[in-house]
Amino acid sequence: MTGWTTHTGRAVSLPIDGIDTDQIIPARFMSQPRSKGYGHFLLHDLRDDSDFPLNNPAAKGASILVSGRNFGSGSSREAAVYALVDAGFRAVIAPSFGDIFSSNAVNNGLAPVQLAEEEVNALHRALSNRAMSVSLDIQKGRLTLGEIEFGFHLDPVWTQKLVEGWDDIDLTRAWASKIAAFRSADRAGRDWAWPKRQAKDTAH
Amino acid sequence: MTTRQTLLDKLWSSHEITRRADGVSLLWVDRHLVHEGSHHAFAKLAERGLSVAEPSLTLAVADHYVPVRDRASGGASAQIRDMISRLTRNADAHGIELLGLDDPRQGIVHVVGPELGLTLPGLLINCGDSHTSTHGAFGALAFGIGATEVAHVLATQTIWQKKPPVMRLTFTGRLGPGVSAKDLALNWIAKLGADGARGHALEYTGSLIDGLSMDARMTLCNLSIEGGARFGMIAPDATTLNYIRGRAYAPQGCALDRAEEAWAKLHSDADAGFAREVTIDASEIVPIVTWGTRPDQAAPVTAAVPDDAPEALEYMGLRAGQPIAGTPVDQVFIGSCTNARIEDLRAAAAVLAGRRAQVPGLVAPGSMEVKRQAEQEGLDLIFIAAGLDWVSAGCSMCVGMNGDLVAPGKRCASTTNRNFRGRQGPGARTHLMSPAMVAAAAITGKITDVRPMLAGREVA
Ligand code: SF4
After folding, report:
1. Can you state the percent helix, strand and coil of chain B, rounding each to 5?
2. What is the pLDDT of residues A130-183, one digit of tens each?
3. Which among B10, B118, B134, B403 could disulfide-bond with B76, CB atoms 3.0 to 4.6 Å apart, if both were Cys?
4. Residue B399, ligand 1, Cβ within 6 A
């Protein structure tokens, strides 16, 4: 994955609270291999409505989604993030996020940018019925849209992962020897926590 | 020694390998449960040429996509069959034990883990499914993770996690007849909101919790996530130990003695501090039903539909002010990791016995073990005589991945955990409620207060 620090792209406003992961990607699409791309599943069942903001021609090519409270609440399905990423999104801006969604997002180069509710509402007003360009600097924690400029805080490790394009496995490599030491101490001290594997029942 | 530790403190410190400057801990994972949906994670490992670090701490279970009827076909569509065989291939390739379609121990991963004695107090349990919080009922640190994290656990047997503050939820009083753990859960979620416990670990305590069975505790912990908490926990006690002893993978002999010694310490110290405290007197709680498209949009069955969520009401085809009871339903579903354990089936059967359902419905036990037990008790005959379909174990209509869907616009009384738009199928209207309440809805064909229907009946 390639990392990023700054991004300028078209933002689209989806002023709905509680867009959960079942809406972001309905479960019936999740058996598809990722290689085919998940972008066209994004918010699939909401898109039947021609007034839906993402169907607006001005939203074409948008890479920043501004939404409502509790974005991405619900299931742990990372496919919700795949749908956003494959549709070209680099950041979602909302007053709050489902927390599994946020960590999934960061592992896939999608920034979950949390702003105060009034700030998000200001963005919705600025973006109502038109798509405008928004600039993000995740290292500085700065968002600009025309005259509007907001600061935000991103967890420093999330920032590092987004900037380096790392996921957790890359980060954890540095701790291999500590993990090995913990494992052997644990086997000795908590033997009950290690399941006895039964001999495989040959009857079935 | 430090005193004044919470249960979470104790669980956390026994798994913490290191903590970064930003406060995020690297934790050891004792059990990792994978299912068909974990294929993205296995693909990620393959992409990087990595192997599974601890196959013996990993269990693969086919549940999300499995057919619950006609197992011999292997699934309704080629795509579904492919999902199941992909899990089999990945489990085989990495030496992971698999409970596949034809395994007598197969079932929903959160039902099977406890049943096999793989779920124990004091363990850290991960699964790529948000309802992993179910296992917290044993005093385990259990939480759902995303596919990248699943790949991480597969590759390293560890997980990065920030320790959350703890919210203690104390339940006092007693549950009235016909009121269950599901009603308790929907009650607190409705009270505090779908993000009411956001960012917190939840510890359930109180005299009422002490008296709950493990099945009921699992229902409660299962739903923690619907109130925004990532963990739900109950300190282990005699009820927990009785449940665990003698299970296939549970420790035995001296190992069990050592385990029980360790488990006896797994409770919040008397003077431990909590970030938030909420107390609920359960005596007032009546059976609860969701009317909207989020689990917190729930109200007593005796109430009217509120008027604060017009979009949800439009989707649900309800009018503000109309009584919730009396709303006609098209079908019912009894199943899922929330409410398909043996006690749930007994509660539904107690209502259905000797009665006929007015609407079609599906009863999908949580595991094949639950299915056998139910059949031993004759519950299957009650469901069948009532006109409901008695099928095999799997997630089924909880999420519809196996093709068991609620048709657009149809209304389903369901024992599941999510009434999100489209969860049970595009346009499906889901009302969450307890197994007894679903049984009542089946018999009357509408949302109904189950309590009068229990008169003169033996209630499990
Ligand atoms: S029964 Fe439903 S909630 Fe439980 S694991 Fe299956 S899909 Fe998830």
Report:
1. 35, 20, 45
2. 778 999 999 999 999 988 999 999 998 899 999 999 888 888 988 999 999 999
3. B403
4. yes
pTM, entire model: 0.86
Residues B75 and B196 in one domain: no
pLDDT value, residue A50:
82
- C-alpha atoms less than 13 angstroms from C-alpha of B454 in its C-beta half-sphere: 20
Reported as half-sphere exposure (CB side, CA atoms, 13 A), residue A16 has a value of 19
- List CB contacts (< 8 A) between A175 and chain B: 17-18, 26, 158
Domain of residue B232 covers 166-283
Domain boundary among B133, B162, B191: B162
Q: Same domain for B12 and B156?
A: yes
Q: Which mutation among B36, B65, B99, B110 tests ligand 1's pocket best, with the greatest number of atoms within 8 A of CB?
A: B110
pLDDT in tens, B130-160: 899 999 999 999 999 888 889 999 999 999 9
Residue B113 belongs to a domain with what CATH number?
A: 3.30.499.10
Say whether both B307 and B420 belong to one domain. yes
Contact B421, B415 (CB under 8 A): no
Quick check: B97 and A70 CB within 8 A? no
Q: Yes or no: say if B143 and B33 are a contact pair by the CB < 8 Å rule.
A: no
User: Does the C-beta of B398 come closer than 6 Å to ligand 1?
Assistant: yes
